Amino acid sequence: MGGSSGGGGGGSGVVDYPAYMKTFHEGILANGAMGGENVTAAMIAAYGASPYIGVDAYDPDADLVSMIAAPGVLQTAVSLLSAGTGLDALVTSVLDHSRIDNAVDEYAADLDARLVASILPRFEAGMRDINAVSSSAFAIGRALIEEEEDRLVDKYSSIVHLKAFSDDAIQIIGMKLQYQQAVSTMLADVHRIKIVAKKEELDVNTQLDEADALWDLKVFQYGSNVLAAIGGGTANPSVNKPTMAQSVMGGAMSGAAAGTMVSPGYGTVIGAVLGAAAGYMSAS
Predict the structure, then answer these.
(1) What is the pLDDT of residue 193?
(2) Which of 80, 124, 162, 283 lies at a CB distance of 3.0 to 4.6 Å from 247, suitable for a disulfide?
(3) What residue ranges do the domains of the chain occupy?
């Protein structure tokens, strides 16, 4: 019994295929069945011509410098609050007892002036009306008036000292701490993005090196696929997929660009952080 004309295995175990398949297979291997082109020529052209030679991953350094500089602007402002005549000098000024004492002295002098010009004359006039200028009541009354003046001065002094410490100084120190916390948070976020970006650059460069090294082998793999295609024995070369870092970095850069359009500087950092989070979610 002879082999089957329909292809496949014959009675003797010999594998055969229809004539049109064998003709096409021979053509695409070497004889140029597709407009004169054939896999052998394509392999010769592709071998040693890796498109990955000299290709490097995107270098994020310039963008990272800009992103890090954004909170740096705020850091400069915070530093100015503590340098020279800035915050520290201001707090010292607020808590400067000589300055406060001068204010208390001025208040006491004002009370003295009003006491001499108005309060004591009215008191003395009243005492003269009742013929009590020489009485003990006159001396006691005047002493009480002067004691009240001293009480008012002491009260004013305590209020001013307390206000200088609990209100002005605490508010100024709190303002600096809030700004410093904001700067620290922004810098931490930016440096986290930097770590992801630089790791991604390394990963992509590694992938490119790998792709370049495997290029010639894949040329043979594609040729082997054509050779084995008539029998269905093909294999698909591996396809590199974006890494989690690529998704996060892409989201960060997109977010940074969008944030810059809204508010250059702080908006850049905020947009980058939000974009990185979105990239992470989409890659999860």
Answers:
(1) 87
(2) 283
(3) 14-45, 59-283
